[in-house]
Design brief:
Pfam families: Acetate_kinase
Distance between the termini: 14 Å
GO biological process, one term: acetate metabolic process
Bound molecules: adenosine-5'-diphosphate
Family: Belongs to the acetokinase family.
Helix content: 25-40%
CATH architecture of the largest domain: 2-Layer Sandwich
Cofactor: Mg(2+); Mn(2+)
Largest sheet: 8 strands, mixed
Order of helices and strands: EEEEEHEEHHEHHHEEEHHHHHEHHHEEH
Number of helices: 15
Strand order of the largest sheet: 5-4-3-2-1-6-8-7
Catalytic activity: acetate + ATP = acetyl phosphate + ADP
CATH class of the largest domain: Alpha Beta
Amino acid sequence: MLANDSVIVINAGSSSIKFSMYSGAALDLTMRGKIENLYSGVAHFIAQDAADSVVGERHWRDGPLDHEGGMRFLIDFAQTHLDGHRVVAVGHRIVHGGVAHSRPQLLDAAVLDELQKLIPLAPLHLPHNLAPVRSVLAMAPHVPQIGCFDTAFHVGQPAAAQEFALPSNITDLGVRRYGFHGLSYEYIASVLPQAEPGLAHARVVAAHLGNGASMCAMDAGRSMASTMGFTAVDGLPMGTRCGALDPGVVLYLMQELGMDVAAVQKLMYQQSGLLGVSGISSDMRTLEQSDDPRARKAIDLMVYRIGRELGSLAAALGGLDALVFSGGIGENSVALRAAVCRDAAWLGVQLDADANAANPRGIARISKADSKVAVWVVPANEELMIARHALEVVEAA
Ligand code: ADP
């Protein structure tokens, strides 16, 4: 890897394409940007260099932009703004790899066809993850593309953590717990031992708390259990997703309230969680600033459910050595971390209130020196994890 060799990371969602460029052997972040508001309203592109200076910006006021149009623009932009950088790989965040795709791999037309078959397992995300791969394949076929799967980190979980208590003919169809946010947890597992070598073999529960939220139990850096399951709607309440729900509720909604599949899906994915409970917002910052008791109730419910899941995941590990907060809420909400740690005192968690209130930027320990369970904040960095994987795959090829 030469100094100007670069890896581009693409993270495409339903209405946005985020990208980052990492350069040189140390994979320094050299550019990042995003196109937002795809398919609706005025699409907006912005790119910034490592010093946060804006190096490109554009609005699409003359009609909606789709993924393909967005990718065409990004590839053109990359070609004119690479500034001497040579793209050696493009890494993609892909939400679902099923059972078969348990590690990062080169993407070609045949692999894409295989991944296409997994769309029923992640219909809201996977098509958007795959669209940019097809665009790059068509427009820049010589550039190696690497798929990095959010499910891969969890593939080695014990069978009991993966299986539902359903008849085997249903389980055999792939109806099992997969777990998500794997790239975030893998990153946490990779950096935690650098910060505190004793944690390399520890029992760790990490909480990735962003708009999507989940928790993962890791033993010596390996995933043992996670709160997200067959889909990314299970587990914790999230910005707009309900999290774990008695499946009987779904039957009630359909049988008694006459809701159809689309209405139930919308309720569970877009109208629940912090937004649904508060009736105000899905955004933790807005709720924390609100005096409305419904905002308090939504936050309290999230804290309660994190506490319940923490107990469950600690049980899966047979004990707990460290608790990690990550994601927009985990990295920034002093109050939520304090509340979760207060409720986890029974596990031996003792927060250092000053270290927590200092709201550290970067990887930091926020528990008291004699806390039985160490508490850490680790800023999420799935993109860097993808860049590392992409580089490893092209270098091994
Ligand atoms: P995504 O899952 O979309 O990547 P993020 O990881 O950026 O989302 O997390 C978004 C969440 O983080 C929002 O609920 C937002 O309110 C919350 N958040 C960001 N900054 C703060 C802050 N200073 N205090 C509390 N919550 C915050």
